[in-house]
Amino acid sequence: MLFGFLVFQFFSRQQRLAPGELTPAVFAAQDIEIGTLLTSELLDVRDVSVRAVPDSHLSFKEGAVGKLTRYPLVKGEVILPEYGLQNTDCFRETVDIGIGLEYTTNTL
Questions:
Q1: Do residues 107 and 91 make contact, with C-beta atoms less than 8 angstroms apart?
Q2: 38: nearest Cα among 7, 61, 8, 4
Q3: Which of 8, 49, 71, 91 has the lowest tally of Cβ within 10 angstroms?
Q4: Nearest CA to 27 among 84, 92, 78, 87?
C-alpha cells in the first residue's frame, strides 16, 4: 500500500511539472561585484524550464532592483533571494553635519 502511494505521488508530481513548462527567471546580465546596487540594466529575464531553476528563484526584475548584493554574481547566474540581497534602507545612515544640513550615506 505504501509503495502504491509513493508511485502515485511520483506520477502526480510529473504531471504538475510538464517537461516543456517554462517559467520566467532573473539572471545577471554581466559579472556583478559584491556590494553592487542592482539596477534593471544589470539583470535579464529569460524563460527557462521549471526544472532548471530552484522554486525560490526571482521571476521579475523588481524583486532585485534597488537591492545590494552580498556576494559576487557571474554573468548568466540565476538570481536567488538566498544570495543575501539586502534592501538599501538597511545600510542608510543620516548624519547631521551642522548648519542645518544632513548627509546621507549607504554603507555595507
A1: yes
A2: 61
A3: 8
A4: 78
Cβ-contact 58, 38 below 8 angstroms: no
Q: Could you tell me how far CA 37 lies from the centroid of its own chain?
A: 13
pTM for the predicted model, two decimal places: 0.64
- The CATH code of domain 21-106 reads 3.90.1210.10
Give the number of other CB atoms < 10 A from CB of residue 61. Answer: 18
Of 16, 79, 18, nearest in space to 46 by CA: 79
Cα 71 to Cα 26: distance, rounded to the nearest angstrom: 16
Quote the cell numbers at residue 31: 559579472
Look up residue 13 and give its three cell numbers: 508530481
